[in-house]
Amino acid sequence: MDLFLQQILTGLANGAIYACLALAVVMIYQAIDHFNFAQGEMAMFSTYICWAMIAGGLPYWVAFFATIIISFVGGLAIERIIFKPLHSAPVLSHVVVFIGLVAIFNSTAGAIWDHTIKTFPSPFPDGSFAGLIGLHEIGMFFVTLIMLLGIFGFFRFTRIGMAMQAAAANPDSAGLVGIRVGWMLALGWGLAAAIGAVAGMMIAPIVFLDPNMMLGILLYGFASAIVGGISSPGGAVAGGFLVGIIENLAGTYIPAIGSELKLTVALILIVTVLLFKPNGLFGKTIVTRV
């Protein structure tokens, strides 16, 4: 029983990180109808920025919030400088740009901070709670949960948040009522980059810091978005927690999977959901009239 409870709690903690990346992925998808394959590399680069500030003497939480601001500005700039001119470009053009961003962020991080694995500090004390889950995992869960609740409140109760939702859902109608659609989409990019930065900074003490640290985590984020529903931000968050729990339980109780093949669980979930419920568990069916 203790083992089962331990895997559930750890799955919730990991799922909070997957939920963050899934939400960031969904926000970009709703803005441009494409997956942001560079989301993990953007989060990794932000995590390196935080590490550099901490190494330079800044307190952890000062560097943490400074990194969020820097990431927000960086995401907004990427949309304004790179993707705004590509608004009407073919799908292949977007894919090529995303691949280019992956290579740029990865190689630049390696060139600045080298490719050696580094330890990233945790703001939470060592130890565990009742021997079931580490204190960092508990702190990681609550930090990401607070952020997710804050984002929900932002979209639900603020004029800018509601304008961003309207711009993503129906740009033409939003523009007719005076919403500056282009800037709303840019703010979405900035917010997605900031969310990814939080995910990177929270998971780095567990997976350690190197330019490839987010590759597997991003796959879990994609799986979470697809399981929950690529058209539903709330569904993507729920999908993150589901994926976290399922991959932990599968790795523990299915001997053929173990800890080495947990990524396989994410791939199986993606294929299964696409086969039987293409819109995700909480996604909306989009009907187009012709």
TrEMBL record:
Compartment list: Cell membrane
UniProt key word Plastid: no
A GO-annotated cellular component: plasma membrane
Cross-referenced PANTHER family: ABC TRANSPORTER PERMEASE PROTEIN, BRANCHED-CHAIN AMINO ACID TRANSPORT SYSTEM PERMEASE PROTEIN LIVH
Transmembrane segments annotated in the record for this chain: 12-32, 52-78, 90-113, 133-155, 183-207, 263-282
Biological process per Gene Ontology, one example term: amino acid transport
Pfam families, per database record: BPD_transp_2
Domain of life, per lineage: Bacteria
This protein's name: Branched-chain amino acid ABC transporter permease
